[in-house]
Amino acid sequence: MQRRVQKNPVLWYYGLTMAASLLLLVPHLLFGVILTPSFSLNQFGPTVGLLLFSLFLGSPAPVRSAFSRFKVKKLPGWGILAVSATAAILFACGKLLSVWGAPFARWGGRAGFYGGECLAMLTGCAAEEAGWRGFLLPELCKKHSLFAGSLTAGLLWGVWHLNFAGGLPGFLLFTASITANSVFLAWLFERSGGNLAVAVLAHFSFNLFSHLFLWNRLGIRAYLVEMILYGFVDLLLVGFDRKLFFARGRRMGMNFVNWLKESFAKSFAIGLDDKYSFIGKGFIFPNDQVKCAAIEKYAAGSGQKIDILNRTSPIRILVNGRDIYEVTLEFSGFRSQYYWLKCKKTGSVKQA
Description:
With 352 residues, this protein is of the alpha+beta class. It has helices at 2-7, 9-31, 45-57, 61-67, 75-99, 111-140, 146-160, 167-191, 196-214, 220-240, 242-246, 256-267, 288-299, and strands spanning 278-281, 306-310, 315-319, 323-331, 338-348.
């Protein structure tokens, strides 16, 4: 089972997420609104799917990796940009819909109502983003560019909603608008250093300002306008940041040491935790030749130029012709039979 999950992680994760989300939808079908109109149990599907995926994988690494992306660093600046840009896009969408013949309608309620709705939206968005940007997007970007990964994640995210309120045309336009939004979210996520809190704020802002500016107007026309506006923003971002979007095999928000740790963990099909990259449990200790082969294998997809300077322990690596790292693999103890990778920067090469 673990080998099958490791071979097709995206397929397994998405299948488990869809199954969990459909099951979580059942209470709403039976009892209607729970707590507040914006609270949806199925929004927890991506997080539950991630927990199930880790269970089938036999490692807590995907869950730990996803939740470690919630950061305070860079949050104020990028968070303000995420909220203000989303507000501007949806405000423009509302104005265009008014011109198109769909008049503005106020999203009414008392202060307590707004507070409960915002809390429900924020909680649901965090639960979704832990899966979509916390796991799915970085997993897709291990093999694909950020642009291709964000489009794929957006398509899967849009389909997951199963929004057939406008029939098949509505479903297709809604999915297209969500896919366009996904490219914008991916740019925010990556430029903020892989900060999932920024993605949560952008997602929350999208839901909140959709209620404020598009209340009772969410339909085929709204989805079409959103698709056009987000598509225009995406074109600007892709044109401005082509190198970011089209570098293949990006490691989302990772420095070299974390990238190498995850690469080794993947090489030996074992999980990864916050401090160590566990290489094996009861496995034969990998020799220097095996370690060098693993480094070279994953260097090919890292987007970094890596030269192995010393192929015997401690292995020394030159990264991008500048930084020198020392890699060792150690045995943790007789009973636990774990191995871990240690990687530290030991120097730099002066450029001529």
